[in-house]
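Tokens in:
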């Protein structure tokens, strides 16, 4: 039987631990929030050496069981069960899971209505958000840069590509619809902001908090790109009891275990696939494929179909490479263990001679 968050929390409290929340990561150190106070913390050696991947370490948003020392620093002993988890593949050639944030209720995906506007990128962010278990909400920033007709057109276009998902166009300059965003962040609600650099995440968070606690920078006019103002993920408590997680601008959002998220963000294709002749249809070449038929007939948007196929192929490739990598790591560990056993047996044998 799976242990619930509440059960695990009570068990750890009974053992004398304090429950804290991770608000920032700093290489091998963390900042936690416990009893209304922030303090530095580090993980136990046991937790560090038992970890098999990055996901086994604390992440921003995690609830952790800690032992306090002189009420000035702490040791993290346990990570409580995560309700939701926003993950991506680590950048570069490494195949590992990187947790962007944990225990998030709402993922605000920000795209600005300038050169940053990109539906394919939006679909990728939506897939990752949907897979996390949190509720995705699309925020279109810099609404003051376009006229009303173009704004309405962009909002409707995003809604077509984000079926069933709340879409809000706002302006941090005119404060248009800022209150609508605020109302979504209730007491004990944790929200996370993700998007490319320069879309206005830090500016919006400053408006929501009511003071400039995050640095902001101007973006280049020619391509709407900005430098990373936020360099580390951090959780910020709000006066109403909610929490905001700010993240650095994401240049590369690699997919990680997103098969469910893809089906959720492309429901029209998921629905059509039930009518395909083959249950394992890839929707690329098979006869009697309902998805391909819909594309040919013009009832399924070609760009949506192309995006779906691209994301599916990337997801399957990552899954296959991850399985190979895990098998290689397991084989290496077994080889090392056998070597240690042989050395032990050999030393015992030599002692008897």
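Residues out:
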């Amino acid at each position: 039987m799976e242990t619930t968050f509440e059960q695990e929390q009570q068990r750890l409290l009974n053992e004398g631990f304090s429950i804290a929340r991770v608000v920032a990561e700093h290489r091998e150190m963390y900042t936690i929030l416990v009893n209304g106070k922030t303090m530095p913390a580090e993980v136990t050696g046991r937790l560090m050496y038992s970890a098999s991947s990055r996901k086994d370490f604390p992440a921003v948003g995690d609830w952790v069981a800690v032992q306090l020392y002189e009420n000035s620093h702490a040791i993290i002993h346990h990570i409580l069960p995560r309700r939701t988890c926003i993950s991506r593949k680590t950048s570069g050639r490494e195949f590992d899971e990187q947790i962007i944030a944990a225990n998030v209720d709402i993922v605000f995906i920000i795209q600005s209505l300038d050169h940053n506007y990109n539906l394919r990128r939006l679909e990728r962010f939506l897939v990752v958000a949907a897979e996390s278990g949190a509720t995705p909400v699309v925020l279109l920033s810099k609404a003051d840069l376009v006229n009303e007709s173009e704004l309405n057109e962009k909002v409707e276009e995003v809604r077509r590509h984000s079926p069933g998902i709340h879409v809000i166009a706002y302006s941090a300059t005119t404060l248009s619809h800022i209150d609508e965003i605020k109302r979504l962040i209730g007491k004990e609600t944790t929200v996370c902001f993700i998007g490319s650099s320069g879309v206005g995440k830090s500016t919006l968070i400053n408006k929501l908090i009511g003071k400039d606690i995050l640095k902001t920078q101007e973006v280049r006019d020619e391509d709407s790109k900005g430098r990373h103002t936020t360099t580390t993920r951090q959780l910020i408590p709000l006066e109403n009891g909610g929490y905001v997680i700010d993240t650095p601008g994401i240049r590369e959002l690699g997919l990680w275990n997103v098969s469910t998220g893809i089906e959720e963000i492309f429901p029209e294709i998921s629905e059509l696939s039930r009518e395909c002749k083959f249950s394992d249809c890839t929707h690329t070449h098979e006869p009697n494929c309902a998805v391909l038929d819909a594309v040919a007939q013009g009832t399924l948007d070609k760009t949506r179909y192309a995006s779906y196929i691209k994301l599916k192929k990337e997801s399957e490739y990552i899954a296959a490479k991850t399985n190979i990598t895990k098998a290689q790591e397991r084989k290496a560990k077994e080889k090392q263990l056998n070597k240690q056993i042989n050395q032990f047996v050999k030393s015992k044998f030599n002692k008897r001679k």
